[in-house]
Amino acid sequence: MVVGFISLLCSLCIACEKNFLDAKPNTSIVTPTSLSDFQELLDVGTSNRTSSLPQLSCDDYYITNYSSYTALQPTERNAYVWNKDLFGGQIARADWNAPYTSIFSANSAISGLSAYKVSSSDQVQYNNIKGQAYFNRAFAFFDLVRNFSPAYDQKTAATDLGIPLKLSPNVDQILQRSSVQQTYDQIISDLNTACNLLNSQVPIQYRNRASKPSAYALFARIYLSMRKYSQAELYADSSLALYSTLIDYNTVSKTAVTPFTNTNNETTLWAQESAGLYLNVQYNASTNINIDTTLLASYQPGDLRKSIYFVTTNGLTKAKRGYSATPSPFVGIATDEIYLIKAECAARRQDYPTALTYLNTLLVNRYTKGTYVPYTTASSANLLNIILLERRKELVWRGNLRWDDLRRLNKEGANITLTRVLNGVTYTLPPNSPLYVFPIPDDEIALSGIQQNLR
Amino acid sequence: MLKNLRSILRYKSFVLTVATTCFLNCALATEIARSQELDKRISINVEKKTLKETLDQISKQAHIGIIYSNAKGILKNPVTIHAEDQPLTKVLTDLLSPLKLTYEVIGDQIVVKFDNTNSRPTLQKQSEKQRFPIRGKVTDGNGSPLPGATIKIKDGPALATTDSNGEFEINNVADSTVLQVSFVGYVTKEIVVTYANYLTISLESGSNQLNEVSVVSTGYQTIPKERATGSFDLIDSTLINRAVSTNILDRLDGVTSGLIINQNKLNPNSTNITIRGTSTLFANDQPLIVLDNFPYEGDLGNINPNDIQSVTVLKDAAAASIWGVRAGNGVIVITTKKGKLNMTPQINFNANVTFSNKQDLYYTPQLTSSQYIGVETYLFDQGYYNNTLRDDYDAISPVVAILNANKNGQLTAAQMSSQLTALANDDVRSDENKYIYRKPVNQQYSLSVAGGGNANRYFISAGFDDNLQPIVSNSYNRVTLNANNTYSLIKNRLEWTSGLLFTQSTTKQNSNGFVASTPYEMLKDANGNNLPVVHGLRSSYIDTAGTGKLLDWRDIPLNDNYSNQTTSLTDYRFSNQVSLKIVPGLQLSAQYLYEKGSTDLVLDNSANSYYVRNLVNTYSQIDPVTGQVTQAIPDGDILSKDNSNYTLNTGRLQLNFDRKFGKDHQVTALAGYEISNYTSTEDAYTFYGYNPATSANGNQSIDFTYQYPQYYGYNTGQIPTGLTSQGTTDRNRSYFANASYSYKHRYIITGSARRDESNIFGVSTNQKGVPLWSTGLKWKINDEPFYKWDFLPLLALRATYGYNGNTDKSTTAYLTTLSLGSVNSFNAPYLQIINPPNPSLRWEKVGVTNLGIDFGLKNNILTGTIEYYIKNATDLIANTPVAPQSGVTQFRGNAADMRDNGVDIQFNLRILNSAISWNTMILFNYVTNKVTHYELNAGTDLNIAQGNYVNPLVGYPLYSIFSFLSAKLDSKGNPQGYLNGQLSEDYTSILNSTNSTSLIYNGSATPKYFGTIFNNFNYKRFALSVGIGYKLDYYFRRTSLNYGSLYGGNFNQADFNNRWQNPGDENHTYVPSMIYPDNIYRDEFYTYSNVLVDRADNIRLKDLRFSYALDKQLIPGLPFKTLQVYFYANNLAILWRANHDGLDPDSPYAPPLTKTFSLGLNASF
Q1: Which end of chain A has fewer CB within 10 Å, C or N?
Q2: Does the structure's ipTM exceed the value 0.95?
Q3: Phi-psi category of B585—alpha, beta or left, where left has phi over 0 and alpha has psi -120 to 50?
Q4: Which among A40, A101, A450 is the nearest to B830, CB-wise?
């Protein structure tokens, strides 16, 4: 009894404490308030995910038999033949949801950071985290617009349908689609903010985090896709000025399943395709797929990429793990892409020596030592095509890049038609087809009522 | 006892014949009228009233039972007395002495007697006291004779039993002997024997039985039911003990009006008890369980049903609002058994054993082996397995292996066909029946002792349950100890009660329980050898993998058919209550409860288990040159432990007031303050390479961050650490008050108010609390002077209104994130957003209106209660799909309102009351539920049909069955629906439509009408009770054929043979044709089409109990006072069901509850 009374008195005293009701109900929940909380909010895996649809739809590979095709998931099947109904009943597609989850985290961080009282001692860290938040938002908006909106065209951008531009973490705010122009304006604005805030050094240990070199590089990639080549070249220069390391492929294992680590030296921003959704076309999956044979044939003797990028088993050649070091294709930013952007832009303005310098600097690292024959001014006339082919060979299985190029180059008049033959039926994707714009997943349309793409 | 008797014997001549006994305060009447009670001060003003009236008034005011008689007509004498705040002794002396009467405390009452002081015999003359015969009759409250009533000397042997006319005769009884008259179901009455010609003894019906039935407990106070305005449902020990079960909740099913236990849970997250419909969407939907005045936080399975005296279910606001925000779903107040003052030790022993049938594995539809082989062959021909067959290690079924061997020329067509035929004859269920399942046997034993002395009472019990569960490797046992003790101190002004409850249970399970992967899998060969099954990897691969250097990679289920997981639950509950009577009518009590529980889960996968061999092999590498095997996982067991603990500290300070003012006014009130602090922690870890003998483990040799390559394929994986650590804190602070005022006993008004505060995360202090209140009225019409209906001696009306509440602590007002302790690909920890900001978060509130009528016909032929209620739940936390552009796919907020209304009716009928008695109890419940407001979008039609409870539609019940209208199949066997009124096969558009008006609303998924009818028959010492339950007007969806699921390997499909196969089949079947590749939306359309919705209505023979009672009176030589032998059978049969498929609508997918048969005995000494 005495014990009981003492305990009762003690518990009553506890209750009188003013903050008795302030105890956290669960140890694992956190209201983000500190800078490290905001960093952790941005480090969530969804921040570095992009849609898998462009990889499924592009001409990097083909499926070798019909039964393999029919065994795929509906989205994989439909994307392969550019079906009008893409998702075939599948909902909660990370192709759409993951970028918006990343935008939500970024917006939550931005809104939290705006309420944070910054001191002189943590100003640098504060700026860097805020810069990452803006970068992540731009990265996600760009992934959405290039998949779910028509390719950028200055003439129609003001009327083409963009994407809903979520700028606040309010979940009850549902937006309609902006225009393509508004979307790109927002992306550029966010990236500008990011560039002003981010650190100049690539974070060697945490390559999932943005830095100035990767923000400039993203600018270069975006302007290239907009066919604004002079801006693309300027940003490529800015990026390479801060970080231009290339890997000598002679140092890379040709037999390893995972030739690269996710902290390899070419990566300035690590990202991968939304994992787990459509893995059946990966190299280690059982699906009978093969890398495009023309593409495979274009690798010259001595080109190390063929054995580092691909593996041939049971008569099928598939892509090994790339810079992501995971089964999902790498969709981040690496210096090789920036070298190629620089070379392409220089060639387009007919500065062939510059173009050749960047092209050869890259390629010499891709061939067995002593076997690489540099391109010379003799190839100037055809240099753009050479660079585009090298781009194709270098950036194969990099998620969106081939699909982006198809959209961009067809806009330039390249007139590339894709074909698939399945079970005797031929499917074609004509240049500039509306099928280059993916439909928005059914659940988004049903819940927000935004306008669907016409396919 | 002896002392009592002596005090009685001291006086020779008493006022004896007992004609009337008066109890006023029923709750307190059984409290002993100790000599200290005589110090009680009372005020009384009586002017020329009869002595009877005066004594009644004193009795009421002093809360003491007074026994008196009408000998010599003295009770009619007019008396006058005026006393103001005088001790009871003085008042009684003043009143009685002029009439030559005195009084004495006898037993627990005051007995008024003739003043024979002058002729008082000396002690030596005691033995010469007068002896005489007595005769009499025992009747019920309405004058009907009670045959079989027992008359005995108090705490002594029985003397007589009444005959069929309720009469008895005893020769040679000593004067002033205290007799006890008892009859099952009635309040035992005590009389003091005096000489009289004939005694008429009227017993109060058990429905008003003191302390047991007529007193309802709210957990804060006990109220006589006649003074309660709210909706209380009492389940007494008879009803509780009617059923045989390990768990108390099973015994409330069917005996509690308005309470339903749903076996077919629609919402997998909810448990299954519902009281008066649902009034929350996503917050806690379970009633609050109160055990001896405090909420019970442990597992309800810890409570031994044999320790329970009574259960009160609080259903409306007036009853439940005292529990505040936790009362939104109703409150179940459990009161355990207690001892009684001056009671000789009563020993009770109860033992029973329950047998059940094996689970009916053939109830769940499944493709036969030959049908499934047909499907596999079809898929093989379509190339479905080609991808799997490309590598050499992915598992393929034996049939696919045979088909592939034939394709590769390794088997001839004839060999193939004979092998397939052999497989087609196997049925895995026969082996499962033989080796995996058994007939469960549950044993239950309980022993208790209850008793009390002058100043203390106690109850001690021990219980043991031992259950062999339906799966051979699984078992459960439980030990419970319960002790409570009450001491009266400082002249009974201070009472101290302490209670201790201890439970220890052990659950043993096989965590790797066998799940068949094909219908033709076999577990033993003809020679009795355990067979391997295909699991994870291909048989041909594991036969050769590692060329003998790896561990045996075969999975032989029967080799692992033992329990490897032990869950031990230990629970202590220690309570203390001290009450102090400050002045008469005012009592201060302090209560303190400490509860601590722990759950230890130990999962030991032995080194020889398939689980360990498979994991070790998967992360082993063999050096191609040296042949050296490198294991990532060290040799030994893999032991996982998960310990969770909780601690609860609760304190309560309470002031109780109960006082009568004047003749007509009575006030009962309480006010109090309560705090509680609940904390829980959970820690889990895993040891690899564990050696049980030395407890050493090999974790240090593992790099848990490293991506180890797997032996087969190209995958890598991390070895899971199994480490988690988590804690929760739940703090509450409450202030409450409750008052009841009654005028002339006829008009009663009650009110309660309460404020609850809790540590809801991220809410500012003023939003942490919520005020709740209730009010109620009762009018006892039958007590009105103008009331003249003799045929209806009991008639009362009740009405209450007020608010209960509910919380959902998982929702917070601010952006909250969950730190999972996981890291991203760069070993950086990250936060995952679990809760988007929600600044307007509020508590859920449930407004409850309750109207009730209590009535009783003459002679108790029919008594009953009819109640009508409306529950308006507002500000409900709702969960709804939101457009993914928001960054989340679900949002929780106060966004919904819901309304329940219904009727609870309980009738007790006395049909026969002769040698054979026949009583019937009828429970009838009607409840409807409607979502009245839902701010958020309900999603697509498919969302609604799939999970209406997640996507409720305004205007319909929370649990509804919606379906798509289906036309007949087209000429190719495709299902046809309607899009914009037109026949359509555009399943995508039909399912994704947000025009919910195109959905069919079939009806509620929970019964609108339900109840039970109990018929109880008694003949001599035999008793039979039969329960029939009914549930009406509700719907369920039956499962049929889903090709996507079938191709994925789920062979539990119905209707395979009824599928469309040939043109013309569309005229007699709705089951779509088999197509390849599968079309998800086509499957979903059929699954949710109206042709698969059935009415769920059913009437079942719930249970049956048969018992035979023996006692000492019948067989004097018996070693015990009473002995009851009983047989109980449960889940007996469905008498009628609306569906024609032979499905149990409460269990359409899985085998229904099996029949159980129990045999038991209950003995008291």
Answers
A1: N
A2: no
A3: left
A4: A40
